Amino acid sequence: MALQGSSSTISEQQLHKEERLSNTQADVAKQSLISSEEWLQLHGLKSNKLTLKQILSQIGFPHCEDYVTSLGRLVSSRYADGLFPRIYRTEDGRAYNLTARSELIYQYVEHLTQAVESYKQRMDWLTSKSRQVFGVIVEQSITIVLDFGGMLEEELDLCRDALIMVLKEQVAYIAKFNIIWASQEPVKWQENAVPVTAQSIAAAISWLEKWPFELPPSQAGCLDALLEAGKDTTIESIYYFVVGDIPEKSKELLLQRALEIPHPICTVSFNARGEGTIALLKDLSAKTHSRFHAFAERTECVEFPTFPVKDGDSVITWNSRKLKGKLPPGAEVREDVFLIWREMEEASSTLAQIQRLVIEPPKTDVATTDHGKCCLWSPV
């Protein structure tokens, strides 16, 4: 009996441990589903006092200079020779007298190294799995409108798999959702957005898996689906998922009537063949104060900004990553990815400059004024 009790206790402890782990993973997922702007407010260099200017103000002070009328030029402040043995010039030409010990500078090197790694991880996250296909869902209550009018029959399974991945990885961590399929008549999964639960996600996946391939909806069918989504006052945003191209003759009416919808419309282009559809969807998202995202299947390598990443003993670049998609013609680099990349570039540059302080401490520069006095020199 004692053995059974012990086994039961261990089993309960294991269940509690797994539950805590699951809750932790869910919390991390929810915290990640924010825009790059919001993410940088939490983890950016400025927020964490890690910009070059902020660091230099903590480890020294600016080397001052003033205009001397009698000389007719800028003259640096005079300090006792050797009192501040190091002057560090930033890349923009400013000079600083450094007063901090090496231990403090090493701490900033460590913080910057961690920041660069954090930005690389965010880049990986943004450009993988459902985020690569759909972008990042940042609202808590949404309706996804599916426009399969330009879909090829062989793309059905790919689209279904992509949407199921979005449901599992992103929608599962928001508050409410609904799905509307643009057909001859709008097909609604639910009348209005419903709370997200394990059961509702499973039901939505089952609904998606039963889709047949059918003829494209009428020109009015896609617009009707969008207008139907716009009637739900409980949602924050509509995600318009378009496979293939939108017929040229329906573009003007679609844009005109969609602007009547009271919700932002996030547009997602999947496997667009021409640039016209990309241009329309970008315009629609911009005019409804929302976001545009594009994905296209690919087999070749996608081009990203190049920077070194340690991988064991080798150095690889983002260009050699094996991704499943690329930007279609007419689409630009995603803004959310660019913002993180730009922050990472600044962090890498700052790290290199701060590392030089401890690897090769700069020497004091001494210049002689017209009056024979010594002063520490900084570029004008």
TrEMBL record:
Q: Where is this region: Disordered?
A: 1-22
Biased-composition ranges for Polar residues?
1-13
Q: Which domain of life is it from?
A: Eukaryota
Query: Which organism is the protein's source?
Result: Sus scrofa
Name-wise, this protein is von Willebrand factor A domain containing 3B
